[in-house]
Amino acid sequence: MKREPIILSIETSCDETAAAVTLGRQILSNVVWSQIAIHRPWGGVVPSLAKRAHQEHIDEVVNTAIKPVNWQKIDAVAVTAGPGLAIALEVGIKKAKEIAEKYKKPLIAVDHMEGHLLSSLAKNFKFHPANGGANFKLEFPALGLLVSGGHTELVLVKEIGQYQILGQTLDDAAGEAFDKVAKMLGLGYPGGPIISQLAEGGDEAKFDLPVPMVRSQSLNFSFSGLKTACLYKLKEIPHKRRDEQFIKDFAASFQSALVQSIVLKLKKAIERYHPQQVLLGGGVINNLALLQQIKQVARQYQVSVLVPYSKKLLTDNAAMIGVAAYYKFKRKEFVKNINKLDRKPNLSLEEYLFL
Amino acid sequence: MKSINDGKNFRVVTGSPRETKKLAQKIFQENKKELRNRCLIFALQGELGTGKTQLAKGLGRALGIKETIVSPSFTLIREYPFEVGGRRGIFYHLDAWRIETAEEWLALDVRGLIKPGNVVAIEWPEKGRETWDKIFDSLAVKVVWVNLEHQGKGERIISQPRRLGGPE
Q1: Would B34 be classed as within a structural domain?
Q2: Which EC numbers does the record give (chain A) (predicted)?
Q3: Which of A147, A153, A192, B85 supports an S-S bond with A282, CB 3.0-4.6 Å?
Q4: Inter-residue contact B94 to B122 (CB < 8 Å)
Q5: B83 Cβ partners below 8 Å, 6+ apart?
Q6: CATH code, B110
Q7: Of A340, A321, A337, which Cα lies nearest the Cα of A329?
Q8: Lowest model confidence (mean pLDDT) among A14-18, A95-99, B51-55
Q9: Total domains present in chain B
């Protein structure tokens, strides 16, 4: 094959029904149908709604994603096998199997977290200039920092496909902490964007909240102590005294403690593993305060930072699955027996997903 | 750890996450024998930050699970295979924080997880209590209800009301 492989990817691990077509690392289409609007009245994901919504939208999303090419042009179909919500993963896997069988294409099973990890390697149609354009070269070891609603992980990338988890959350994920503190403050869902917006007008030194895991030498994260500290602090202040400025100051103080905690672990990981590059992924990277501090640390240690070229690549999407699938395609890691591919709700990046 | 005996409820005050985990191990040991022919369910009721996940971590330790038990708020269900005393099973950690009604659990086929020999910890079981009661009543289960409350200064009151669900 002279050209790079064209891959159709499907991702339905949680809230989003997504499909994308990639040519090598280049994104030809990236369609995401978000369920956040459906979920908002409930303050979270409602699983049967999630499943029904995935089933209702998957055909439309896939048919839109395929438009830049035609079915016969596809070289492989890729799908997220895990981690995620079992019944949601099932919908995508079923669809991917159907397409692979109908058009006789090989199937590639992808780890959702590998998608986030490699999302910054995605290219737009002109190549992403921030990543060195066509001359961009990934250097190893690299360090992945993945921060989302369900995950907070530091990953050592020895090579693409070879990962070691250096640290992860021991309790709540960072995005979850945003959601829970937003709920305590009576704000909406998802909590991250709301808190970060409010924090811009707030004083982060106003409330003394503990920075989690300061003394711990491990690279693990923990946000449940911060969550509880927020709860105690809020109990001291009656609702009637919580004006707009109070909410802004509290949001800023909370965000600052959380960001400091993440950045502290990033520094430790850089000092211990001397990575050439830091790869960022996950929806919480959209938080500007976090991104700015990460970049500052990277400058301090003279390590380059790779960030996906669009916000859409940070939250759940299928194009990132396509990028991970591209490397698997090159390594010829196809699903051997399509019928045996099953959802893996607890999949970890250290597991070898070659089925 | 201080025990308070008011004659009706089993009440303990824990002063740290570590103590909460220890208490969980103790509660598990007291109910372990039930695993022979029933599913052991721990229904953990309490506000945000009262230590429900800590308690689940303690259960995981009692089951010899090496993996880190993390909050399932986002993924709703996490599962961990275990082997304790030569008995194999799966520990399911459920979290209804993002769920409004227990009917949603039926869509997740939660009944399929409740099998003799398995252990299920449920956070926020008070959401849709009636549905949970119906599920429990129709299956071979032993339900241990655990209430967690804040008591200032980092302390938690952890109590087991005597009969709030499941046969004694």
Answers
A1: yes
A2: 2.3.1.234
A3: A147
A4: yes
A5: B64, B89
A6: 3.40.50.300
A7: A321
A8: A14-18
A9: 1
Looking at the domain that runs over A142-306, which CATH code has it been given? 3.30.420.40
pLDDT mean across residues, chain A: 91
User: Is residue B102 included in any domain, yes or no?
Assistant: yes
Contact A118, A19 (CB under 8 A): no
* Tokens at A339, concatenated: 């019928």
- Band (B164; pLDDT cuts 50, 70, 90): very low
Kindly state whether B133 is in contact with chain A, defined as any CB-CB distance less than 8 angstroms.
no
pLDDT 10s digits, A51-79? 777 888 999 999 999 999 999 999 999 99
In a domain, B168, yes or no: no
B75 lies within 8 A of chain A by CB: yes
In tens, the pLDDT along B89-102 reads 999 999 988 777 67
- Measured between CB atoms, does B130 come within 8 Å of chain A? no
Burial B37-70 (b: 16+ CB within 10 A, else e): ebbbbbbbbbebbbbbbbbbbbbbbbbebeeebb
User: What pLDDT was estimated at residue B8?
Assistant: 61
What is the band of B9 on the pLDDT scale with cuts at 50, 70, 90?
A: low
CATH 3.30.420.40 occupies which residues in chain A? 6-128+311-340, 142-306
Q: How far is residue A274's CA from residue A141's CA, in Å, rounded to a whole number? A: 8
Looking at this protein, which amino acid is placed at residue A51? K
State the CATH class of domain A6-128+311-340: alpha beta
